[in-house]
């Protein structure tokens, strides 16, 4: 029995189109931090583990990248920057990218910051120094790389 016995010509053509459709680009992580060393370190950790990254040094640069790059599937942002991290999250939540998963990584945060962040539906709020394995696990889960 061949597929000619089961599928019509139109069904075979549709199946071939699906099989030859271009693959979607890998989802990327957007890392937002005004500290260049922190941005580069996180980017290297993700790159070593096969996760593509974009970086931004400010909230405004990050928001522009989000508008221009549909492949960004997760944002990791610092809280304390010239452009406040919470303001960036509020802006994202009121945009067409409102459902974007966001993780906060901060070296200096108050309890009030954590409460405000949770009200903005962030995935997690991590304090520096971070546990890289935990962050990678969170990122993989949010990007759909693990169940």
TrEMBL record:
User: Could you tell me the superkingdom of the organism this chain comes from?
Assistant: Bacteria
Residue ranges constituting the Response regulatory domain according to the UniProt record? 28-143
Q: What InterPro entries would the database entry show?
A: Bact_response_regulator, CheY-like_superfamily, Sig_transdc_resp-reg_receiver
An example GO biological process term is: phosphorelay signal transduction system
Q: Which residues are annotated with the PTM 4-aspartylphosphate? A: 78
PROSITE patterns assigned: RESPONSE_REGULATORY
Q: What name does this protein carry?
A: Response regulator
* Keywords from the UniProt entry: Phosphoprotein, Two-component regulatory system
Instruction: Report the SUPFAM superfamilies cross-referenced here.
Output: CheY-like (SSF52172)
- Species for this entry: Pseudomonas vanderleydeniana
């Amino acid at each position: 029995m061949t597929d000619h016995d089961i599928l019509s010509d139109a069904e075979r053509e549709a199946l071939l189109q699906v099989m030859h459709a271009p693959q979607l680009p890998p989802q990327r992580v957007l890392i937002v931090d005004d500290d260049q060393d922190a941005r580069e370190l996180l980017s290297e950790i993700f790159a070593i583990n096969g996760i593509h990254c974009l970086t931004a040094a400010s909230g405004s640069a990050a928001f522009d990248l989000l508008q221009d790059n549909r492949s960004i599937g997760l944002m990791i942002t610092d809280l304390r920057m010239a452009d406040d991290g919470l303001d960036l999250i509020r802006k994202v939540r009121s945009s067409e990218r409102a459902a974007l998963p966001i993780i906060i990584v901060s070296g200096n945060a108050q309890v009030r910051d954590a409460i405000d962040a949770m009200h903005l539906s962030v995935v997690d709020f991590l304090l520096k120094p971070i546990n890289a394995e935990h962050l990678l696990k969170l990122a993989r889960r949010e990007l759909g790389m693990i169940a």
